[in-house]
Every structure is written in C-alpha cells, then in structure tokens.
C-alpha cells in the first residue's frame, strides 16, 4: 500500500470517527426556537485506554432550554484499545476503527503538527510522573541552515522522525550539557 492509499485509508477512518460523533448528536438534539436556545458549550470526550487506564468521567453542561428543565446532552466517549501488538483500535459512539503502525505514525504526525500551534504550550519542565519511552542511540541527521542554525532530526521509536532547530549559541550549550561531568 503506497503513501496515498494509506492517507486515504486514514482519512476514511477519521471520517468514520467524525460521523460516529456528529450523526448521533444531530439525531439527539431537539429542535428549539432560536429565541429560546441556550448557548452550547464545547465538551471534550473523556478518553480511556483499554485495560491500562482508568475511565475518565466528564460531565457536559451543554443543554437545550425546553419548557422548564434543561436536558443534558451526553457526549460519546473515546476508547482506545490494543488488541494486537501491531494494531490499535479507536471507538467513538460505537464505531470502531482499527489502525496499523503506518496509520498510527500518520496520526501521531498530524496530531503533533496540530498540537504545535495550540495553546497552552506543553509545560517548560518535565512534569512529575510523566511516562515516556526513550530511544537509545537514535538515528540522526544534521543539516546546516543558511542562517547558521542547525537542523537536527532524530528518529524516536514511538514518535518517528522528530526535528529540532538550534541556533549556534544553543548548539554550544547543548554540547556543554552533553559533555558535562
């Protein structure tokens, strides 16, 4: 399967996930005259990662005003499972999509690109209890930029190719940190 076919399969999987969320919400939303509709608050679906994570409970405050009492609108949950070593399944609203290693890599890349432009930024220090997988002696590539910066690309076993750009001053600081003590 070439890259374009893989992207098509991933896009189809994402479309299925979106449809699983949007269609049930549209069916469950009662029609309300415009003058009585309450503002809707965006909600984030709770995430569960199969047997390895505890269920996360979240309540939605989005409600539609009807005669006297607001009716809560339930959001579907996202479930992530790992049925086999080379497969992850994602389920939203009863719709399950299986992702293989190549598709997971594409998803990680797309999520990483999106996250890079979001706020707030990740914390400046390493959070307490942070879990990670490190790659010992990663494959690397370095390229000198026209402005004197250095592009360092390292291959992480989970994240794939991860690029970093360093100014000349930062290259010196990095060298000193790596050779210290």
Folded structure, characterized:
The protein is α+β, with helices and mostly antiparallel strands. It has two domains: 3-116, no CATH class; 140-179. It is 30% helix and 24% strand. It is built from three helices and nine strands, in the order αββββββαβββα. The protein has helices at residues 3-28, 101-116, 168-179; strands spanning 47-48, 63-64, 71-72, 78-84, 87-92, 95-100, 140-144, 150-156, 160-166. The strands form three sheets. It has a four-stranded mixed β-sheet. A three-stranded antiparallel β-sheet has the order 7-8-9. Helix 1 (3-28) packs across helix 2. The chain is elongated and about 60 Å long. 3% of the residues are buried.
What is the topology?
Blueprint (H helix, E strand, L loop, with lengths): L2 H26 L18 E2 L14 E2 L6 E2 L5 E7 L2 E6 L2 E6 H16 L23 E5 L5 E7 L3 E7 L1 H12 L2
Parallel strand pairs: 1-4
Antiparallel strand pairs: 2-3, 4-5, 5-6, 7-8, 8-9
Helix pairs in contact: 1-2
Order of helices and strands: HEEEEEEHEEEH
Helical percentage: 25-40%
User: How much is the average pLDDT?
Assistant: 75
When the domains are counted, the total is 2
Largest sheet: 4 strands, mixed
Portion in strands:
15-25%
DSSP helical segment count: 3
Structural class: alpha+beta
Biggest β-sheet: strands ordered side by side in the sheet: 1-4-5-6
Uncertain spans: 28-66
Distance between the termini: 49 Å
Shape: elongated
Task: Give the tally of β-strands.
Answer: 9
Radius of gyration: 22 Å
